[in-house]
Design a protein that fits this description.
Aspartate Aminotransferase, domain 1; Aspartate Aminotransferase, domain 2; 15 strands; 36% helix
Length: 370
């Protein structure tokens, strides 16, 4: 038997059952195009973050300080929270995987909303845990559905608020009701990746709930409004008990110094944050109104994207629309992998890109006879 004929090493069998996360498409036929598939900040990142990142290059030979003290201090000052309850991470998705590793094993289960972020299920599958999907109400997560789905096997409950990929959110009163209805030994994970974009009177961050509970984890990211997706930097806020657990299972230096420095600087650039928020608010409304006027359903969104539903009629489908948009140089996100085959998720881009997508969809609708 030759070396090539020998059997390759095999991982645990259930690892092969876990899907591989697929990010948004970035090119069309190998060529760069207008990427509106990953909900990135169209303005990039803060100039202050770029400067801080460049300065950090002077010390690349040195290991980071293990607790990410630079960034924890900046986050605590920016949000008025306790730095000892913060764990920094390589993107907020790392926290999701760490929680699964720490709290799940074979026979356990998680609950997520029917159309919740894909990483929740992937993390559970890697630990051979079951996934319970709580039905949504017209693409809006339902607290009643979460509570009715509870079983003795559930160890983690994931809720994205606001939710990707639907753009919906739950009022603060509903988040509190969900937490109150869960057993104390079940960890409630509230993913607030898009929290900086929302401006609704009945919405509040769940950070304050952490102070009085041992079983809540709130995750945040610098990938969205702060425009630092390429640095993979995020954080969570939780109880001392869960902080201890996460610090035991994370890698020792999981937040690089350049990423910490850039993120800390990004928090201070209020002008950039406000400009990004304002641009998003204007074009979220414009995209929703003008695409709806074409006869397509646009689900209400408080994030930096819109979810558009297309009919199943041949020539008018989401797949047809995606192909047409790509022919015009626009990459958006088909939602087939989320169980929404009739939908496309379109990120809010620069003004000219938003206008270009609206014009392209107008042409598509006219060409398809709508």
């Amino acid at each position: 038997m030759t070396v090539d004929e020998k059997p390759a090493p095999r991982a645990k069998p259930w690892i092969y059952e876990a899907p591989v996360y697929k990010g948004g498409q970035a090119e069309i036929d190998g060529q760069r195009a207008v990427k509106l598939s990953s909900n990135e900040n169209p303005f990039g990142c803060s100039p202050m973050a770029k400067e801080a990142y460049a300065r950090a290059a002077e010390d690349l030979a040195l290991y980071p300080e293990g607790s990410a003290a630079i960034l924890r201090k900046a986050i605590a000052e920016a949000h008025g929270v306790d730095p000892e309850r913060i764990v920094c991470s390589a993107g907020s998705d790392e926290v999701l995987f760490l929680l699964a590793r720490a709290y799940l094993t074979e026979g356990d289960a998680i609950i997520k909303s029917e159309y919740g972020f894909a990483i929740y299920g992937i993390a559970a599958r890697q630990m051979k845990a079951e996934i319970i999907n709580a039905p949504e109400d017209d693409l809006v997560p339902s607290v009643d559905a979460f509570l009715q789905a509870m079983t003795p096997e559930v160890r983690l409950v994931f809720v994205a608020n606001p939710n990707n990929p639907t753009g919906a959110y739950l009022p603060f009163s509903e988040i509190k009701r969900l937490h109150a209805g869960l057993p104390s030994d079940v960890v409630l994970v509230i993913d607030e990746a898009y929290a900086e974009y929302i401006d609704q009177e009945d919405y509040e961050t769940a950070l304050e709930l952490v102070e009085g509970a041992a079983n809540i984890v709130v995750t945040r990211t610098f990938s969205k409004i702060h425009g630092l997706a390429g640095l993979r930097i995020g954080w969570c806020y939780t109880s001392p008990e869960i902080v201890d657990v996460l610090n035991r299972v994370r890698s020792p230096f999981n937040a690089s110094v350049p990423a910490q420095q850039a993120a800390a600087a990004a928090l201070k650039d209020k002008e950039f944050i406000h400009a990004s928020f304002k641009h998003n608010a204007i074009w979220l409304r414009t995209m929703t109104e003008e695409i709806s006027a074409l006869g397509l359903r646009v689900y209400p969104s408080v994030c930096n994207f819109v979810l558009v539903e297309f009919p199943e009629t041949l020539g008018k489908t989401a797949l047809d629309a995606d192909r047409y948009l790509q022919s015009k140089g626009f990459i958006v996100r088909p939602m087939t992998g989320y169980g929404l085959p009739n939908c496309l998720r379109i990120s809010i881009g620069k003004e000219e890109h938003c206008r270009g997508v609206i014009n392209a969809l107008t042409e598509f609708q006219q060409a398809s006879g709508s």
